[in-house]
Design brief:
heterodimer; A: Rossmann fold; 8 strands; elongated; B: alpha+beta; SH3 type barrels; six-stranded antiparallel β-sheet; about 25% strand; globular
Chain lengths: ~625, ~120
């Protein structure tokens, strides 16, 4: 793709700006759903490109560069931005035109980047963004005046409104974008004195356009007085996180039941109408039972991502990082590690990729190593299945559900063990002496529905494409492994016992017997290596096939309630808190650290923790059950 | 260590810093202090950013400058953490950043006479 773009006739426009200037919202307005999310070659910095058709019908490619405070990079994100702009990034052509996005309420900070870009000499326009918020604050800036002072064209934009980029689009249309300047751009790293001189110029410009007022106590400050309060703040954070987890369980119930009923009805209908054949077995036992039991967790994943995106968009996430910084610092992590770790609750892969915002390499490594201990959403299906089957649906005081409570405890165990591992790493010398924080706390915003919807859809797409590809393929393979060879004539046991999977499972069961796993679980763990949630589908397949009767419904819950003991169920929960059950995570770590050493260490320590955790859980639970 | 000496001899050095920093206004009887010593809610102006011992390797001074911690800019302590009063949330100009104490300690400020309303 990238190799071709050099010869591409469609002009490339880059969006550049400080973090939190509303650049991504503007990108969403410009490109709508015509976005491609990928990575820059060789690094895991997210590359977002979209396209725009101007009113006159010409096409423009829009590249959303990572947010940067300056052109002298300190993080891999900023490195990409600087390299692309300076035309020295292999595989990326320098943009033909630059849109420098600025927050109209924070020009004092944002205009320095404009001055740097202007010095670079690329054709550019300044997008004066968030003018709606600025106006509400009484900051009215005349774009023409600002343009005269800066010596660069300026257009007003409102990134939260669909029509907010109209003037910018007209500009991209009319400004016949000049052919790309050839050659590399000269860039000299400024000293602190140079930056101070730029700031003096910024002050002069702000004064000239009448925007040099600094508000005393803003609305965000008043909110921060509560949200960042040393005592009230952590309480609010605990309540927020707790409500999120309760919602993931409670709100998802109705749609999950509907999906389950739909899959069951389809399986029942196929079972009655299709003649007995291998194809029927594949469809009903392999695909519907397997894929259906993973697909059913889509509502929970949507709800979890919805809350993460909501907290991110409103500006609360960096506040949470602020509140947790000291606790994280005590185990040798930066408060910045909070955002990657929180993303890891959705999936460790974006979490590990998000560690690139941590400047210190040793800090970053420690964060990468503990990211898989954060309970990712792929573990939810497993937790939900076992909790649903073994934990009674009881309401505790205050309307809280016991099931939600158990889920919360599982998350806490993951976090606590992550802290413990980080502490060990710090002791082993992996933590840095001086950990930098320098985290921006942007002004609070009402979350923009459009951005939430686009973000949510991108996550749902990833999940669905996994269900449709990796998971589907594994289900078919597992079905085949579980169906062949067919049982000998006159066999009495369930068919799967005679299959390849049955042999593999009984072999693995020897290893897992001390922690209470039966052969069905042992089989399910194998495909679970590719993706954790596959284990649930695999259990569905294994149990559906081992049922001797005609009943092959996807209802896994009653099956496991009858065939597993409580200690076995708890042991499996403990296993899933720790187990290195995800090859994609290990592959990401290999890519991020550029070495096999760390994924191997990670897999080994997680496996050891998982085995130990399950062993202790199983033994203690067995002893308690016998006592009771 | 260097910073401690400066704090001890603050008053004697005030004039010198006024001359060097150039940003503190004459007549305000500027008393420069570490940003970390500024009370929560109090406003001040940045006088200078001095590199901290050992942390200079991280490019701390330039990074703080890039975020806007530059002589003459208005600062205010917005909030502090519960444990050891760290981290510290600082309004600089129109933006807000959370800093570790060792980062904030590099920033010398001169308190404003009139508190923000």
């Amino acid at each position: 793709m990238e190799a071709l773009s050099g010869a591409h006739p469609i002009p490339l426009v880059a969006l550049v700006g400080n973090p939190n200037c509303g650049k991504t919202a503007l990108f969403n307005v410009l490109t709508g759903s015509r976005q491609k999310v990928a990575n820059y070659a060789g690094v895991t910095v997210e590359r977002k490109e979209g396209s725009l058709v101007t009113p006159s019908g010409s096409r423009v490619r829009i590249l959303d560069l990572p947010g940067a405070y300056s052109l002298d990079p300190l993080t891999p994100d900023e490195q990409v931005t600087a390299d692309v702009l300076l035309g020295r990034r292999a595989g990326e052509s320098a943009p033909d035109f630059v849109v420098c996005v600025t927050d109209a309420t924070n020009l004092r900070q944002n205009l320095r980047l404009v001055l740097s870009l202007k010095r670079l000499g690329l054709p550019m326009v300044v997008a004066l963004n968030m003018t709606d918020i600025a106006r509400r604050k009484g900051i009215v800036i005349d774009p023409e005046r600002l343009s005269r002072e800066l010596g660069v064209p300026v257009v007003e934009t409102v990134g939260v409104k669909v029509s907010g980029a109209k003037r910018l689009i007209d500009m991209l249309d009319s400004a016949a974008i000049p052919p790309r300047a050839t050659g590399k751009f000269e860039w000299r790293t400024p000293s602190s004195d140079d930056i101070a001189r730029d700031q003096a110029e910024v002050r002069r410009i702000l004064k000239a356009v009448g925007a040099d007022r600094i508000d005393g106590v803003t609305f965000s400050d008043k909110l921060d007085a509560v949200v960042l309060h040393p005592v009230v703040g952590p309480l609010i954070l605990a309540v927020v996180l707790f409500l999120v987890f309760q919602a993931v369980f409670a709100w998802a119930q109705v749609p999950m039941d509907a999906i389950k009923a739909g899959v069951d009805a389809l399986a029942g209908w196929l079972g009655q109408t299709m003649p007995e054949s291998l194809l029927k077995g594949l469809l009903v036992n392999g695909i519907l039972a397997g894929v259906g039991s993973v697909f059913v967790f889509l509502p929970q994943i949507i709800i979890l991502f919805f809350f993460i995106l909501l907290l991110e968009d409103s500006g609360y996430l960096p506040r949470a990082a602020f509140l947790l910084d000291r606790i994280m610092g005590s185990v040798g992590l930066s408060g910045r590690a909070f955002i990657p770790l929180l993303s890891s609750f959705a999936c460790a892969i974006p979490g590990i990729m998000a560690t690139r915002t941590i400047q210190n390499p040793r800090d970053r490594l420690a964060t990468i190593m503990i990211a898989p201990l954060m309970t990712c959403s792929a573990r939810l299906p497993v937790y939900a299945l076992i909790i649903g089957a073994f934990i009674p649906q009881r309401t505790l005081w205050g309307g809280l559900q016991l099931q939600g409570m158990v889920l919360f405890v599982l998350y806490l165990v993951g976090v606590a063990s992550a802290m413990a591992v980080a502490y060990v790493l710090k002791r082993a010398g992996a933590g840095a002496r001086f950990q930098s924080l320098m985290l921006e706390l942007p002004a609070y915003h009402w979350p923009i529905l459009r951005n939430l919807a686009i973000g949510l859809w991108q996550r749902v797409e990833i999940f669905l494409s996994r269900v449709g590809t990796i998971i589907l393929a594994l289900m078919v393979i597992l079905w085949a492994l579980s169906s062949f060879p067919a049982p000998p004539p006159g066999a009495t046991g369930p068919a799967i016992q005679y299959s390849i999977a049955g042999h593999l499972g009984s072999w693995l069961a020897v290893i897992f017997k001390p922690i209470g796993f039966n052969w069905q679980i042992s089989i399910a763990l194998v495909p679970g290596l590719a993706a954790r949630e596959v284990a649930v589908g695999a259990l569905g397949t294994v149990y559906a096939l081992s049922a001797t009767g005609e009943n092959v419904s996807g209802a896994l819950t009653p099956l496991i309630t009858h065939s597993w003991s409580l200690p076995t169920a708890l042991s499996l929960l403990a296993w899933y808190v720790f187990a290195p059950q995800c090859l994609s995570t290990l592959a990401t770590v290999k890519r991020e650290t550029n070495s096999w050493r760390y994924p191997i260490i990670m897999a080994a320590y997680l496996f050891a923790l998982a085995y130990l955790g399950s062993f202790i859980t199983f033994r203690v639970a067995t002893a308690l059950t016998n006592l009771g | 260590m260097h910073l401690k000496h400066q704090t001890d001899g603050t008053k004697q050095r005030a004039h010198e810093i006024d001359r060097l920093g150039g940003a503190a206004r004459a007549g305000d009887a500027p008393v420069d202090m570490k940003l970390t010593d500024l009370k929560t809610g109090a406003t001040a102006r940045v006088v200078s950013v001095v590199p901290a011992e050992g942390a200079a390797a991280l490019g701390l001074e330039r990074r703080l400058a890039e975020l806007g911690f530059l002589p003459g800019e208005a600062v205010r302590v917005v909030a502090r953490g519960l444990l050891a009063r760290e981290p510290i949330a600082v309004r600089i100009g129109t933006g807000t950043f959370a800093l570790r104490l060792f980062e904030a300690a590099c920033i010398r400020v001169c308190p404003e006479q009139t508190p923000a309303v």
